[in-house]
Structure formats: structure tokens, C-alpha cells
Amino acid sequence: MAIQPPIVQPGDTVGVVTLGSPLESEVIDDRAEYLASMGLNVVLGTHVYDWNGFLAGSDEERANDLMEMFLDDEVDMIIPTRGGVGVAGILPYLDFNVINNNPKWVSGYSDITILLNVLYQYANIITLHSLMLIDFRATTPNYNFDAFFSVVSSDDMGGEIVNPPEGPALNGQVPGHVTGPIVGGNIVSFTGTLGTEFEIDTTGCILFLEEVNEPMNTVYRYLKQLEMAGKFDDCLGIILGQCSNCQEAYGQDYEDLIEEFFVPLGKPLITGLASGHGTYKAAVPIGATAQLNGDDGTITVMSEN
């Protein structure tokens, strides 16, 4: 069973790091101020403002910032500023034994999902597919904050993952029910680690996927690569989030790809989870055991305590 990190309470400290692409300093400062206004202390990584082309400093510098946050007893939770690209580059520099001995919540989506899954696979800690620093602003829906804090601030993270009341309900597209740990996140990020020691392991797991800003012919390419790598054969069931701002191509849309890749598997399938790059972001604990019920379209996280 994976380790659930300690709860985060008002007055606790959040370590902010930039692990992939850079973010403007004024945006970092603004979002950090908003996070602090929610009753949390904020400390910034040494290289949080670094800007080196499309990366925020070297791979080793970004990895060192993350490790320093795990080693700092005053830091209770770690939040990346954004995703972008380049998160895979920090992985060889991480000490997973140290991380295992100092479990802390790490939250994010987009390219950060590479890290979330690797921390589960190599350090056996539960991570959270949820908010990043860029999301801490007044325009973020309350649903997102409620979902985030309901996990990181509770001894018992068990319960049903639901879409916001104003959004569509989850859709049980293929019936059946399975129980296993949830893994997954951003589609394109995972294709970039295939063939490496850090590729996602879906064996015996519930696979969750989402994507953004890609035309359907490109999404097809990514899904075909994951399919040929055996990731769909190895998993127990599938949860699909949105393909946010993904454009039709050659007359095909996202639903066509779902029908081509996932429905024929015959595995329990739920679609339409509000998550990741969409406006509404469900909090999906990576590594936590869940029950997926394709009969009634429900996802229930089991208590780890």
C-alpha cells in the first residue's frame, strides 16, 4: 500500500518549485501571495525564477530544488509553479529513498504528471493530480479549491470523485467494475518517457488520461504509441478526462478515438472527468486505491487509513 503524506493545515508551509518550463516572476509572486492569503506559508525554491530557454534552469538545478523541499522539515507540501516541458529531465537526479522517508504532498498536472507517477512507482508515495501554483488566483472555481483541500487536508481521502454540479456527469461508457491504484495524467507527457526506466507502469492499475490543445490526428499518434507499448492491455480499467481545446481532424473528434481505442478493450471505462487542463479540476490521488464502476459511472477512492 502506498504512503499517504501527512495532512496540510492552516499555518503549514508550502514549498514552491519550478520543475519544467519557466514562469514569469510577476506571475509567481502574484500566485504565491494568493496562496499565502489562504493561510499557508510559502517558501520559494532557489531556482524558481530561473529562465533558460524553454526550461527553468538546468535539469540538476531543478531537481535539487525539489530535493531540498523534501529534506526541509519545515516544508509540509510541494507545489510546482507550472508544467510545460522538461520534467522528465530531473528524474535521474532524484533520491527516491530520501523521498520515501520524507513523504509530502506533491500536486500538479500537465508535464508534472510524469513526476507524480514516478514518485508513486519509485518512492511509494501518493501524489495528487490537481492544482499548481498558477491556479491559485481569484478566478479559479471554488470546486477546484474544495477538491484540492479535501484531499491534502484530510486524514481520510476516501470518497467519490465527482464532477462539479454545473458540469456534465461522469459517463460509464463500458460496464464492469475493478479495484486498483490510479495512475496516469497527461497523454503526451507519458509518450515521452516510453522506452526509459521512468515510463508509466499500468499493470494492475486504473489508467487515467487527459490532453489539451492537440488536433485529433496527433492525439491518435500518442494513443497508438501507448497502445503498442502495452499500456492499455496491462491496465484494469480506464478513466478519461477531457481533451481540452482539442481540434477535430479529418472529420474525427475525441469521441471517435474513444470508440476506436478504448471501447473495444471491453474494460470498465468512464469518460468525461473534469480534470487537468480543463476549467474544472478534480483532485485525483495518484497511487491511491480506487473502485471504478462503469455500470453507474462512479469513481470511489478507498481510505488508506
UniProtKB/TrEMBL annotation:
Q: Where is the LD-carboxypeptidase C-terminal domain?
A: 179-292
Keyword Hydrolase in record: yes
UniProt keyword annotations, A-Z: Carboxypeptidase, Hydrolase, Protease, Serine protease
Domain LD-carboxypeptidase N-terminal: start-end pairs? 14-129
Q: What is its EC number?
A: 3.4.17.13
Q: List the GO biological process terms.
A: proteolysis
Gene3D superfamilies referenced in this protein's UniProt entry, alphabetically: Class I glutamine amidotransferase-like, LD-carboxypeptidase A C-terminal domain-like
Q: Please give the name of this protein.
A: Muramoyltetrapeptide carboxypeptidase
- Native species: Geomicrobium halophilum
